[in-house]
Amino acid sequence: MKRQIIRIDEELCNGCGQCITGCPEGALQIIDGKARLVSDLFCDGLGACIGTCPQGAIIVEEREAEPYDERRVMVGIAAKGTSVIAAHLQHLREHGENGYLREALEYLQEQGVPVPVAAVHHGGGCPGSRERTIAPRPAARQAGPLEETGSELRQWPVQLALVNPASPSFDDADLLVVADCVPFAYGDFHRHFLAGRSLVMFCPKLDARIDEYVEKLAEVFSRHRVRSVTALRMEVPCCGGVRMVVQKALEKSGVSVPMREYIIAIDGGIVGERALSEACAF
After folding, report:
1. Under a CB-based contact definition with an 8 Å cutoff, are residues 202 and 233 in contact?
2. CA 19 to CA 91: how far, in whole Å?
3. CB count, 10 Å around CB of 201?
4. Which residues contact 132 (CB under 8 A, 6 or more apart)?
5. How far apart are CA 246 and CA 64, in angstroms?
């Protein structure tokens, strides 16, 4: 089959071995003083090794190659320990390879290998961490048991860590950027905000990949004509990072997109709204 796979220029390669650590899949080895692709089966073609090569000896090309085999790769990955497993899973997430990621997680589950989870630091004084009991807000109508009201979700995945910035779902889109607590607090989220929009979501407090999110959103803005951005955040101070990520991404991409921010209260009301077009016109 034809697919994307790496090629190593042997004349440029000096055998330094830096690409080996950049390939947790185990597709590369140093043989006879040169980096070699030992098996097409282990190369996912995503090019993680390219940035680690100081000689610029590695490129990605399209050619006939054996299909990549995620389960065979995971046999070697799982044996290398937590750090290598985590690096491989993150690599798949960043490139939107959700099918391979699902296979990898299934393999770990079958083998009883724990999935690495980044430590979550709980801040003692942050209002966003304070426990509260919330009285239910009155519904507009009483829904029957398991009654389906319909979904306005237009694409999948929606977690920004998994989103492919090249996805056609962003073409000529009205983009909705949401703190991940918002849909739970705001009861009319689908009808009021999600309808007709393409969605990405993340947690500005607990996610440790904010710089990567800026890069990914900047790529979305650079690759596609985005008509507008609606940013939704909770009222707690730590949620202000949603607006910051969008603004930095717009600045990095060099485009101007009208933006409006809504602030949602913990009890579900809208407590703030403002247009940020001027602040985002770079």
Report:
1. no
2. 15
3. 20
4. 266
5. 40
pLDDT value of residue 148: 67
Average pLDDT of the residues in 118-143: 45
Residue with tokens 């900047």: 218
Question: What mean pLDDT is reported for the chain?
Answer: 82
Fold of 152-280: Beta-carbonic Anhydrase; Chain A (3.40.1050)
Joined together, the tokens standing for residue 132 give: 């509260």
At 239, which amino acid appears?
C
Question: What CATH number belongs to 2-111?
Answer: 3.30.70.20
Supply the DSSP symbol for 15. -
Judge if pTM exceeds 0.90.
no
Three-state DSSP state, 191: helix
Output the six-digit token pair for 262. Answer: 């809504």
> CA-to-CA distance for 43 and 281, rounded, in angstroms?
41
Residue with the larger pLDDT of the pair 91 and 107: 107
- Give the per-residue pLDDT at 83: 76
**What are the domain boundaries of the chain?**
2-111, 152-280
CB contact at 8 A, 35 and 7: no
Q: Name the nearest CA neighbour of 267 among 128, 138, 135, 127.
A: 135
